[in-house]
Design a protein that fits this description.
Blueprint: E1 3-8, E2 14-20, E3 32-36, H1 43-51, H2 74-84, H3 106-118, E4 124-128, H4 136-153, E5 156-160, H5 164-170, E6 173-178, E7 181-187, H6 188-193, H7 198-205
Parallel strand pairs: 3-5, 3-6, 4-5
Antiparallel strand pairs: 1-2, 6-7
Helix pairs in contact: 2-3, 3-4
C-alpha cells in the first residue's frame, strides 16, 4: 500500500510526498506485528491507512471488517469490557460510567481506551504508541493486559512504537520503517539479535529496556 500527500510550494508549484511507499504486510490470526522507526518514518500513516482513516494512493486492505452492535447490547457490552480490563465493580469502580475523564488516572484512561476497542470484538487492533505516556510500572501492567486479551480472544495486533524494548516484549514479527518504506523485516527476535541494516542497528543503540516482563507472545 502507498500513501502520497500533495503539498503546495507557492502559487503555481506543487510537489508530491510519499509518506508510505509500497509497504506490504501480512497479519496472521493471533499474531502481533511490530512497526518501528523514528518520528516521520511513516509508521502512524501506515496504521491510519490500514484503519481506513487515511486514504491510500495505492493498495488495498483485504479481509477487514468491523462488527456492529445493536443498541440493546451496548450497556451490557460496555460493563463487560470495562470489567475485562480491570475497571469493573470488583475494582471498586461501581460508579465508573458516571465519572468524567479527569477523574481517572493515566493508566485507567489507557485501560478505558483498550475497552473501547475490544467491546466490538474486533479481529485486529492497531495500537499506536499505547504506552508512551505511562510510567514504567503502569506500562508493564498495560502490556500484560494486552497480551492477556490477545490470548483470550485470539486478536491480531499491529503494534506501532518507537520503543524497541516494548516491541521486543510484544511482537512476533517486526517491520522497520524509514522514510515511508520498510528497510528490514522478519522475526522480531532475529532482527533484534542480528540486525542487517545500519538504520536498524542505530535504533538498537538507543534502546532502553523495560526490564523483565511476562508478555511472551502467545
Amino acid at each position: 500500500m502507498g500513501v502520497t500527500f500533495h503539498r503546495s510550494e507557492g502559487w503555481f508549484r506543487h510537489s508530491r510526498f510519499n509518506a508510505v511507499g509500497g509497504v506490504s504486510l501480512t497479519l496472521r490470526a493471533g499474531e502481533t506485528v511490530g512497526i518501528v522507526g523514528e518520528s516521520g518514518s511513516g509508521k502512524t500513516t501506515l496504521g491510519m491507512a490500514v484503519l481506513g482513516l487515511q486514504p491510500m494512493s495505492s493498495g488495498e486492505v483485504l479481509a477487514w471488517h468491523m462488527p456492529e452492535l445493536a443498541a440493546d447490547e451496548r450497556l451490557q457490552r460496555v460493563r463487560a469490557a470495562l470489567a475485562e480490563v480491570g475497571l469493573g465493580v470488583s475494582a471498586g469502580l461501581e460508579d465508573i460510567l458516571e465519572r468524567y475523564p479527569h477523574q481517572f488516572s493515566g493508566g485507567q484512561r489507557q485501560r478505558i481506551a483498550i475497552a473501547r476497542a475490544v467491546v466490538i470484538e474486533p479481529e485486529i487492533l492497531v495500537l499506536d504508541e499505547p504506552t508512551s505516556a505511562l510510567d514504567v510500572s503502569v506500562q508493564k501492567q498495560v502490556l500484560t493486559l494486552l497480551v492477556t486479551l490477545q490470548r483470550r480472544h485470539g486478536m491480531s495486533y499491529l503494534f506501532i512504537s518507537h520503543d524497541l524494548s516494548v516491541i521486543r516484549a510484544m511482537a512476533h514479527r517486526m517491520l522497520v520503517m524509514k522514510d515511508g518504506v520498510v528497510v528490514e523485516q522478519g522475526e522480531c527476535e532475529s532482527i533484534l539479535r542480528n540486525p542487517q541494516m545500519p538504520y536498524t542497528r542505530a535504533l538498537l543503540q538507543a534502546v532502553l529496556y523495560v526490564g523483565e516482563l511476562d508478555t511472551t507472545p502467545p
